[in-house]
Design a protein that fits this description.
With 88 residues, the chain is mainly alpha-helical. It has one domain (2-82). It has helices at residues 2-19, 22-40, 47-63, 68-82. Residues 1-51 are annotated as: Disordered.
């Protein structure tokens, strides 16, 4: 289930990319690819990496209001996954 949240986030970012400008589209697709990689890896991302994703995605959402809702959906999935990560 927890890795499914990362896949959901990646899917949401791909949908958001469709509504974003060219530069933001590339950034969102890159972030989606990274989340897919984490979903398939032996170990998922740690709190620091997840915080980095949240920061980057929040910046993009501020710059791309047409994509902001789907980015927020991705952030919700990342936060749900983050609740399952041990540590901080």
């Amino acid at each position: 289930m927890t890795r499914e949240e990362l896949r959901n986030a990646a899917d949401s970012l791909r949908t958001a990319a469709d509504a974003a400008g060219a530069e933001a589209r590339e950034r969102l697709e890159a972030q989606a690819g990274k989340l897919d990689d984490h979903a398939e890896a032996d170990r998922g991302p740690d709190h620091g990496r997840l915080a980095h994703y949240e920061h980057v995605l929040s910046e993009i959402a501020d710059e791309e209001p047409d994509a902001a809702d789907r980015i927020e959906t991705a952030l919700d999935s990342i936060r749900a996954y983050r609740e399952t990560v041990e540590g901080v």
